[in-house]
Design a protein that fits this description.
The structure holds 2 protein chains of 2 kinds. Chain A folds into 5 domains: 4-129, Rossmann fold, CATH 3.40.50; 138-236 and 318-333 and 500-570, FAD/NAD(P)-binding domain; 238-316, no CATH class; 336-498, FAD/NAD(P)-binding domain, CATH 3.50.50; 579-656, Alpha-Beta Plaits, CATH 3.30.70. Chain A is built from 17 helices and 34 strands. Chain A has a 5-stranded parallel β-sheet. The mean pLDDT of chain A is 95. Chain A starts with a strand and ends with a helix. Chain A is α/β, with parallel strands linked by helices. Chain B is α/β, with parallel strands linked by helices. Chain B folds into 2 domains: 2-120, Glutathione S-transferase Yfyf (Class Pi), Chain A, domain 2; 138-287, Rossmann fold (3-Layer(aba) Sandwich). Helix content of chain B is 46%, strand content 11%. In chain B, the strands form 3 sheets. In chain B, strands 6-5-7-8 form a 4-stranded parallel β-sheet, sandwiched between helices. The two termini of chain B are 30 Å apart. The chains are: A alpha/beta, B alpha/beta. Chain A binds chain B through residues 342-344, 346, 349, 397, 463, 465-467, 472, and chain B through 159, 165-169, 187. Bound molecules: flavin-adenine dinucleotide. Flavin-adenine dinucleotide binds next to helix 5, strand 11, helix 10, helix 11 and helix 14 of chain A.
Chain lengths: 657, 290
């Protein structure tokens, strides 16, 4: 016979208000197998927990039921207390008589609440009688991390993990790390030069012995589970031998062919053998084969001729490497929404209508104009510049529904940069609202207006057209209730920040979720902001939504903290609430394999000593299983059970009702 | 020969005859036939702007119902306003079950919005192709600087009309180039002409249409084409005022795109109805040697 103890919590007046807890305890006492039962004011308080522990010892309890709040609140508390008293924590159960009972019943005579409280308690007791003692599952942890994306978020995560003493593999798709931040001129709200604060970190990545950098590479496949991932990485052919190349740059200098520069967003061109920008890390050039005559017509080859160490290798092929890691940080960042979608602004048709990111390049001292603001059409210094905010953001009809968050700030920054560089210049800003929440952000915008004289016009722009070498901007000024027309020399569009093209493909490869905009989903928007539904995979930076540099760095460090926590021991314990397959009953229909949202079930082939196939059955990977129970419901032959929630337990509870 | 069911609408039967006749003849020359619906009524000439004004949908619903009954999977229009009203009504009947049941209850026969409402310009672009039109041109309109005026109804609301980019349309310019013209781009080509205010507030029409014409003339347009009888009327008429008010402004003829198309395909000037325009384009043609 079981020896069960029942503890009914009053939760102050939260439960006691509509449930007679004393009655519930008395009723429970009458049930077979219950040897001890009582109520108490606050079970979760220390005296409450002490009482529970003592009762376990004194009455030699082999099971404990706490009828109180939701197990989400305090199951951990009571299981820990049980454990401390020598009882297997999985022999401790809770019945929820608060959220699902006292809070939803208003009968002050306590009649309804008490009846239901009794029912719930009785059901839980029957369940508890069939609880098997479970042991935490220990799984080994490979203490190396993979970071995907070498923007500021990925760089920060990689450096912090390496600092914590663990190896990191950093995979970057482009020839250099740095991401979008490398493009920025100066950064709000402090106006420090982006390159000056970024490049030291990039160099640190290169010099850190714990970090292995795969630039110009992409992750093709991620298999496995927390602590035990296997990743396949494609290293694209650079046509330059990394071990031989000294980064002298002679090949770039001598290359006679040019193509549009991706890094400079088409504002200028680069050579066909190139590094994206002078401070690139690694400082190893790549050949843009589709634009190189050597590849297209077997002509030229100048780079190979001038290369001292003979590092140029036109025959190089893509290679694929496999790495084992225990955790993954996804930090693949964002891109800008294509502006061409907005015909009214004339982007793509009028040369002097540019994007905010292009403006960053014009303002950058390493940019195509050496930091002088010169407009693309004729290189003239513009006197009047109109900035249009919310191009695509907060525009459900033509763009995206959300606010891109960084544009109010960078537009204010742009007006300042413009004014500092063109003293006689006048900036106009069309805005919907100014969103400057953040430390010193509001002050920053005020400064742009009050000190640097930017004219802020609250209203939308209806159209932009060219006239006699000017770009005319027509819009509304809703504060003075008038229509305005500004003859500008240049127009800058604060385009929406969107997810990277193909981000959903990567999400499928890694097994994480993304929202309808293609941004990656965190596990919980408040309490688990860097975790994902796939244990062991973390997020950092603008791949999960528009954010600025401080936030991206925060997340990079936070993800690194999570990874280091996971890596703190060679094994990790996890809750044993996982599915089990009864191999003899499984008829290998694979419905569970299809149903499992975590890819935790594999098709297992049974072989005898000679290697003959004896049969097949489903097999649950305990490391990956999240205990959701979908497979249990899907299994036609009832071969699967979920530990802690077996059919036997569930039916016993129903029968007791 | 490809047959396309055709809804002319009232204006094309009366004041805008040139739009109708030139289109029919051009169609024949380009290898398709416009088959006028046997029974049709006025489309209502305005899509109701209040969502619960369903009575305004009954007239166009009836047109669409008849078109379906006559068996074509689509119905083509020439007038921008008819196109707008029919296409939007069709969408409501297709997507909104509740409104459909009320409206069709009124006309006492069900219609599900299943036919396509298309514009003549779409047929030219998507079925005939501008390349083919270019080949069919007998009288290239070389040297004529023509501006395409779209107005509102052909393009907006863009999610419902979808014929072209409503902020920077190019479909008519494509046609103009095929005819040998030089297409003049001007910023006001998709601005409003003042529309029905022609009846009540001519001052507003004069201002809006005046802006459009000055903008076009400023870019060197010698001629404007449009697909809307109301736009044609406003742009033409308002110029009297513009001439008075704007020193140096010279009148710019406004014709239907089909008139220019017919001209290039070699039709005679009377069938095209060129003489009906307030400002004649024939002196221009002559001066260009076309
Ligand atoms: C015009 C403009 C101005 C701005 N100015 C400021 C400012 O002044 N101050 C400020 O705080 N913030 C500013 N921001 C915001 C800032 O750019 C971002 O906060 C920051 O760059 C986000 O960094 P990230 O690492 O998350 O993403 P990214 O910088 O986008 O980096 C992502 C990296 O991942 C790589 N990658 C992508 N996909 C893959 C893949 N599949 N495999 C491998 N690698 C991949 C990319 O190549 C890239 O290197 C500005 C933004 C804009 C648009």
């Amino acid at each position: 016979m079981a020896r069960i103890g029942v503890f009914v919590c009053q939760c102050g007046n939260n439960i006691e208000g509509t449930v007679d807890t004393k009655k519930v305890a008395e009723e429970a006492q009458k049930l077979p197998g219950v040897v001890y039962s009582r109520n108490y004011k606050f079970m979760c308080s220390s005296p409450g927990q002490e009482m529970l522990k003592e009762a376990i010892k004194k009455h030699r309890l082999d099971g404990v039921l706490v009828s109180a709040c939701s197990p989400h609140m305090h199951e951990k508390t009571f299981r820990k207390a049980s454990d401390a008293a020598g009882l297997n924590p999985f022999r401790c159960e809770m019945a929820n008589i608060r959220e699902q009972c006292s809070w939803v019943h208003h009968d002050r005579t306590k009649k309804t609440g008490t009846v239901k409280g009794n029912d719930l308690t009785r059901m839980a007791i029957e369940r508890l009688k069939r609880n098997r003692p479970l042991k935490k599952i220990n799984i080994p942890v490979t203490r190396r991390a993979l970071v995907i994306g070498g923007g500021i978020a990925g760089i920060q995560a990689a450096l912090d993990i390496a600092e914590g003493g663990r190896e990191v593999i950093l995979v970057e798709r482009e020839p250099s790390i740095g991401g979008n931040m490398a493009r920025l001129s100066e950064t709000f709200p402090t106006m420090d030069c982006s390159q000056c604060i970024l490049t030291p970190k990039m160099v640190e990545v290169e010099l850190n012995e714990k970090i292995k950098l795969y630039a110009y590479s992409e992750v093709e496949k991620v298999d496995g589970y927390i602590g035990n991932f296997t990743v396949r990485i494609r290293r694209k052919a650079k046509y330059v031998d990394e071990d031989l190349c000294t980064g002298c740059g002679e090949c770039i200098e001598k290359c006679p062919f040019k193509a549009g520069s991706e890094f400079e967003l088409g504002l200028t061109s680069r050579k066909v053998i190139y590094t994206p920008f002078p401070q690139s890390v690694p400082n190893i050039p790549v050949i843009d084969a589709p634009n190189c005559p050597k590849f297209q017509k077997d002509k030229c080859g100048a780079c190979a001729v001038v290369c001292g160490p003979k590092a140029i290798d036109f025959k190089q092929k893509d290679t694929v490497v496999e790495e084992k890691v225990g955790a993954v940080v996804v930090a693949t960042g964002y891109q800008m929404m294509p502006n061409e979608r907005f015909g009214e602004y004339g982007y793509g048709r009028f040369k002097d209508v540019i994007s905010g990111m292009q403006f960053e390049r014009l303002a950058s001292s390493s940019g195509p104009t050496g930091g002088e603001i010169r407009r693309p059409s004729d290189g003239k210094v513009p006197e009047t510049v109109v900035f249009i905010q919310c191009v695509g953001s907060r525009d459900e009809a033509k763009g995206v529904s959300y606010c891109s968050k960084v544009c109010c700030m960078y537009t204010a920054k742009h007006t300042m940069l413009f004014r500092h560089k063109v003293k006689s210049g006048q900036a106009y800003v069309f805005y919907m609202d100014i969103r400057a929440g953040g430390k010193r952000y509001e002050e920053f915008v005020r400064k742009a207006i009050e000190k640097d004289g930017a004219m802020y016009l609250r209203g939308r722009v209806s159209r932009v057209y060219e006239k006699d070498g000017k770009v005319v901007v027509c819009g509304a000024d809703t504060l003075s209730n008038s229509q305005v027309e500004i003859e500008a020399d240049m127009v800058v569009l604060a385009t929406a920040v969107v997810s990277r093209k193909g981000s959903d493909g990567l999400a499928r490869t890694i097994g994480i979720g993304s929202d309808r905009h293609g941004f990656y989903n965190e596990y919980h928007p408040k309490l688990k902001p860097v975790e994902t539904v796939n244990a062991g995979i973390y997020l950092a930076g603008a791949c999960m939504g528009p954010m600025d540099i401080p936030e991206s760095v925060n997340m990079g460090s936070a993800a690194a903290g999570k990874v280091l926590g996971l890596f703190s021991s060679e094994e990790m314990a996890r809750e044993p609430i996982v599915a089990n397959v009864n191999e003899r009953v499984c008829n290998a229909c694979w419905d569970c394999v299809v149903a499992c949202p975590y890819s935790a079930i594999e098709r297992f082939t049974v072989k005898n000593g000679q290697g003959d196939v004896m049969g097949m059955h489903a097999k649950v990977n305990e490391g990956v299983c999240q205990g959701c129970g979908v497979c249990v419901a899907a299994c036609r032959s009832k071969a699967i059970d979920l530990a802690g929630y077996t059919d036997e337990q569930v039916f016993a509870a129903i029968n007791a009702f | 020969m490809m047959k396309i069911p055709y809804y002319p609408g009232c204006t094309l039967n009366t004041v805008a005859k040139g739009l109708d006749t030139s289109a029919r003849e051009s169609a024949a020359a380009l290898g398709f036939e416009m088959e006028e619906l046997k029974g049709w009524n006025c489309c209502g000439a305005a899509f109701p702007l209040t969502p619960d004004n369903l009575i305004g949908l009954t007239a166009p619903a009836k047109v669409l119902l008849n078109a379906k009954k006559e068996g074509g999977g689509s119905v083509m229009t020439l007038c921008s306003v008819c196109y707008n009203v029919l296409k939007r009504t069709n969408r409501v009947l297709r997507d909104d079950k509740e409104k459909r049941s009320i409206v069709t209850g009124f006309i006492e026969e069900d219609y599900d919005g299943s036919i396509d409402v298309i514009h003549y310009l779409e047929v030219l672009r998507d079925r005939v192709g501008f390349e083919k039109i270019k080949e069919a041109v007998k009288r290239p309109l070389k040297g004529i600087r023509a501006g395409a005026y779209y107005g509102c109804m052909l393009l907006r609301p863009f999610k419902e009309m979808g014929i072209d980019d409503h902020e920077a349309p190019t479909i008519m310019e494509g046609l103009l180039r095929a005819l040998g013209c030089e297409a003049v781009d001007f910023p006001d080509k998709a601005e409003c002409c003042g529309a029905h205010l022609a009846m009540t507030r001519t001052d507003i029409v004069e201002r809006l249409s005046g802006n459009v014409m000055r903008s076009a003339a400023g870019r060197g347009a010698e001629l404007i084409v449009t697909s809307c009888p109301l736009c044609q009327y406003n742009l033409e008429k308002s110029q009297k005022k513009t001439l008075e008010e704007t020193p140096g402004y010279r009148e710019v003829p406004v014709v239907y795109f089909t008139q220019l198309l017919g001209l290039a395909l070699g039709q005679d000037e009377d069938t095209l109805g060129l003489g009906k325009n307030l400002w004649d384009i024939r002196p221009l043609l002559k001066s260009k040697g076309v």
